[in-house]
Specification:
alpha/beta, TIM Barrel
């Protein structure tokens, strides 16, 4: 969502709303803008769901604004996705402030830094602080399991992606029964 530089968070969020409205106005088509929650590192804005709500509230054309939920960023911002209770609390707040109808996409990343660190370090699925249990709850949650997911895990060699994809697949519980 951006960085506030020397502005206050409120000023920066107002600037972001203006920019989104301007972009949507200048490009009159059906393409949506999807904003992603941040880790809150440094001067980043958009790390609290309440800030994302403020942005959406300010966008004139509500049909063209959506949200991407980044798991590592949410965790680093203080939403504890490593266990079931934390996931439920996080999703309850997301639903209350933003609404699942706005959610378009999930970025699947584990976190190399602890919950609430506000330090943005993506890590391999299951090997960070969110862990296998956390991702198992995430990918099988009824509100989340049907969304497209994109992994933003570290990529040093081809096998890294295959490893992370296999890990995610191994955590999905078949619901065909
Ligand atoms: Zn992301």
């Amino acid at each position: 969502m951006g960085s506030r530089r020397e502005e206050s968070e409120a000023e920066s969020i107002e600037r972001l709303i203006e920019a989104i409205n301007d972009a949507l106005h200048r490009v009159p088509n059906k393409v949506s803008i999807v904003v992603e929650n941040t880790a809150g590192q440094g001067k980043q804005i958009g790390y609290k769901f309440s800030q994302i709500k403020t942005v959406i509230d300010g966008v004139a054309n509500k049909e063209r604004i959506g949200v991407c939920l980044d798991t590592a960023h949410a965790f680093q911002a203080g939403y504890d996705l490593s266990h079931k209770d934390g996931l439920e609390r996080t999703l309850e707040e997301f639903e209350r402030l933003i609404g699942f109808d706005r959610l378009k996409l999930i970025h699947l990343n584990d976190s190399k830094t602890p919950v609430g660190s506000r330090v943005d370090r993506h890590w391999h699925i299951g090997e960070g602080y969110i862990g296998n249990e956390g991702f198992k709850n995430i990918v099988n949650h009824p509100e989340l399991c049907n969304f497209p997911g994109i992994m933003e895990t570290p990529h040093k060699k081809e096998e890294d992606d295959i490893k992370n994809m296999s890990r995610i697949e191994s955590l999905v519980v078949s619901n065909s029964s």
